[in-house]
Write a structure and sequence with these properties.
Blueprint: H1 5-19, H2 25-33, H3 42-63, H4 65-74, H5 84-102, H6 106-109, H7 120-143, H8 156-185, H9 193-217, H10 221-224, H11 227-250, H12 262-279
Helix pairs in contact: 1-5, 1-9, 3-5, 3-8, 7-8, 8-11, 9-11
């Protein structure tokens, strides 16, 4: 069905001008400060995993005739709501995630060296997601009918959904380390608020796009059949609000030293003040 120009613009704006643009402020801020201090390595690491999976599922939904057929079988003959702009967004996002992640390798960018490492919990999530996807693939190979081509049993579309759900899981957890780091530092310095503002716009418009697409098709299975896209928009909005509260209300104006020694300095200053007071 033909979409009116306003709907086409909404689709383009939600991805190209909002979510896609949201990947630039953080690496540009890192370059300007010549440091990644203020951001956690967990965020870009999980982002790479998430968008690798999201790109995979999006490409399969868009290009695979088998996946498209199985989707129609399970959703009353309707087409899935993945569009060309979703594919472009996924590939672009994955590339920018790799750029941001590479900035934690200080020699590559000439940044100040930091003693940072990705925690065991993050690697546990990565391994757990890999095991989960492998289990679904095994079930398709073992119990799927007609080599997984029969959508009425375990089918290859289930593997696509599994990969997509990894992105959903990653989105749930990837913001937590950064939100916790901001809380401990009582500051959002080094964490770009502009990426958050662009992200929340993209989240709202992405959900609007999904609803409009399903409305034009006169079938709401476009939403129920694409829970990853719906979930991503909602989860992103929740965490974006948390970061906005931290930046504009809780820790407004709070700054920390570039080298991360702010807690130690405050401790030394406090002891100096106490000694000076005792002498007086």
């Amino acid at each position: 069905m033909f979409s009116p120009p306003s709907v086409q613009f909404l689709r383009a704006f939600s991805r190209t001008l909002s979510w896609s643009a949201s990947f630039y402020p953080q690496p540009l801020l890192n370059i300007r400060r010549r440091s990644t201090h203020g951001t956690t390595p967990a965020f870009p690491t999980l982002n790479i995993l998430g968008f690798l999976c999201y790109t995979t599922s999006t490409l399969l939904f868009y290009f695979s005739s088998l996946v498209k057929s199985q989707y129609r079988t399970r959703n009353n003959g309707e087409e899935n709501t993945v569009r060309a702009n979703d594919v472009a967004f996924a590939l672009h996002a994955l590339a920018l995630c790799l750029v941001t992640w590479s900035q934690f390798w200080a020699p590559l960018w000439g940044f100040e060296k930091r003693n940072v490492r990705v925690g065991k919990g993050v690697w546990g999530i990565v391994v757990g997601c890999g095991v989960g996807v492998a289990w679904v693939v095994g079930m398709v190979l073992r119990k799927g009918l007609d080599g997984g081509r029969d959508a009425g049993s375990w089918a290859w579309i289930d593997c696509v959904y599994a990969v997509g759900y990894v992105k959903l899981v990653v989105t749930v957890v990837k913001y937590v380390p950064q939100a916790w780091a901001n809380y401990r530092r009582k500051s959002t310095a080094g964490w770009s608020i502009h990426q958050i503002l662009l992200d929340i716009i993209g989240g709202v418009l992405s959900i609007a796009q999904l609803v409009i697409d399903s409305s034009l098709q006169r079938d709401w299975s476009g939403i129920t059949g694409n829970p990853v896209k719906l979930g991503l928009g909602n989860i992103s909005i929740v965490f974006d609000i948390i970061f906005m509260v931290q930046h504009y209300i809780l820790y407004k104006g709070n700054e920390v030293e570039e080298d991360g020694m702010d807690h130690e300095r405050r401790g030394l200053l406090s002891r100096d003040d106490e000694e000076a007071a005792a002498r007086r």
